[in-house]
């Protein structure tokens, strides 16, 4: 849906950047189009910093507008008591960015060079020509949840299958129903514990015969009577009535025995992949590939290069926290650019 918003205008802007690539310089460039990117754009545009935002074209497999475009109702973004769809929320953010003068380009940034100032960047359309230059960059390219791509998963994705318990756990289809979480780390334990607020019981499927989670999390799981841990267990197939998930085919990897587990919800907690490919090796990352920022800021190991949203946040991963960090990045970038004058 997001991809169809004012396509002509944005494509013409993008075309302008392609044709005139020799001359293009942006004061501040935002890469991404989720809540972090658009919040940064709104703040920078209102501060008259003339931001340019590359929103991507199915970058990282996600439509412009980010992860929220892949979901239905958003009930936890403040200001919308009656909820609204993820696509509508992102459309509104995009309109707000554009209203204050953000130059939105519908192209995917394919390469960035942070080795000297001004920074250089190329998009998928100008890879073989002169780069666009920029004094500062805010990376807000987000992340994507790892999925197993089980048979049946495409049918029941967002119809029983999710990768975010905090986002989706409260929806009616999961209320007082048996649910399953796949994963063996702290996230899986946290998600399972959270889901016991809504589900009748929660199974945790762990491929190995032990958790990777911290001991303290394991103790909490053991004490929760509504959580059942199935070790040595993998999921084979998601099944349902064509509309909603109601069974997970599972297998004990030790015995080889297969069973149907009746569940109405399946939550993946097997990690996320931050979209950092274009800056790999150029900026410090943590051990799981997230861009490292100085705590409480968007500052990275490269002055003038800032990171916001899920691409630098492996913990909270929410629209409102991403928006908050987009605001922080805009204020950090503005301060940086003002000091450069
Ligand atoms: P993202 O939303 O990940 O957006 C990044 C964007 O950058 C993408 O559009 C991508 O295409 C683009 N991009 C990537 N690389 C490039 C590039 N090289 N050039 C140009 N563009 C690029 N959170 C909530 O608070 N409430 C919810 O109810 C909720 N539900 C969710 C449901 C689902 C199914 C999912 C997957 C997530 C949900 N979330 C929810 C989490 C929320 O969507 C994310 O935390 C938030 O969108 C992260 O925002 P972001 O700005 O960091 O980036």
From TrEMBL:
What are its cofactors? FAD
Query: What PROSITE patterns does this protein map onto?
Result: PYRIDINE_REDOX_2
InterPro entries hit by this protein: FAD/NAD-bd_sf, FAD/NAD-binding_dom, Ferredoxin-NADP_redctase_2, Pyr_nucl-diS_OxRdtase_2_AS, Thioredox_Rdtase
The record's cofactor note says:
Binds 1 FAD per subunit.
Query: Which Enzyme Commission number(s) are on file for it?
Result: 1.8.1.9
Q: Does Cell membrane show up as a keyword for this record? A: no
**FAD/NAD(P)-binding domain spans which residues?**
27-326
Q: Which Gene Ontology terms cover its molecular function? A: thioredoxin-disulfide reductase (NADPH) activity
Q: What class of enzyme is it?
A: oxidoreductase
Return the Pfam families for the record.
Pyr_redox_2
State the UniProt keywords alphabetically.
Disulfide bond, FAD, Flavoprotein, NADP, Oxidoreductase, Redox-active center
According to the record's subunit comment, the protein's assembly and interactions are: Homodimer.
Protein family: Belongs to the class-II pyridine nucleotide-disulfide oxidoreductase family.
> Which protein, by its recorded name, is this?
Thioredoxin reductase
Species = Saccharomyces arboricola (strain H-6 / AS 2.3317 / CBS 10644)
């Amino acid at each position: 849906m997001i991809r169809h918003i004012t396509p002509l205008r944005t494509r013409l802007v993008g075309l302008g950047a392609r044709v005139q690539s020799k001359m293009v310089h942006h004061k501040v460039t935002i890469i991404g189009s989720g809540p972090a990117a658009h919040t940064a754009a709104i703040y920078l545009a209102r501060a008259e910093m003339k931001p340019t935002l590359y929103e991507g074209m199915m970058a990282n497999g996600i439509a412009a507008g980010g992860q929220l475009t892949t979901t239905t109702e958003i009930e936890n973004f403040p200001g919308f008591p009656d909820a609204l769809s993820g696509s509508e929320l992102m459309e509104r953010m995009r309109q707000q960015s554009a209203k204050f003068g953000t130059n939105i380009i519908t192209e995917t940034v394919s390469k960035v060079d942070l080795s000297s100032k001004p920074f250089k960047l190329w998009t998928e359309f100008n890879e073989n020509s002169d780069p666009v230059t920029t004094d500062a960059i805010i990376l807000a390219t987000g992340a994507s949840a790892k999925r197993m791509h089980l048979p049946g998963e495409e049918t029941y994705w967002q119809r029983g299958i999710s990768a975010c318990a905090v986002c989706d756990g409260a929806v009616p289809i999961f209320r007082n129903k048996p649910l399953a979480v796949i994963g063996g780390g702290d996230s899986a334990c946290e998600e399972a514990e959270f889901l016991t607020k809504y589900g009748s019981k929660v199974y945790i499927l762990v491929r190995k015969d032990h958790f990777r989670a911290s001991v303290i999390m394991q103790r909490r799981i053991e004490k929760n009577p509504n959580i059942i841990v199935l070790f040595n267990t993998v999921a084979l197939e998601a099944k349902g009535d064509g509309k909603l998930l109601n069974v997970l085919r599972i297998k004990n990897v030790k015995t080889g025995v297969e069973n149907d587990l009746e569940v109405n919800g399946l939550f993946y907690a097997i990690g996320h992949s931050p979209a950092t490919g274009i800056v790999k090796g150029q900026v410090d990352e943590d051990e799981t590939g997230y861009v490292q920022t100085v705590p409480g800021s968007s500052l990275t190991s490269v002055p003038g290069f800032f990171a916001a949203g899920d691409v630098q946040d492996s913990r909270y991963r929410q629209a409102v926290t991403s928006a908050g960090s987009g605001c922080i990045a805009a204020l950090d970038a503005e301060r940086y650019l003002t000091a450069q004058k």
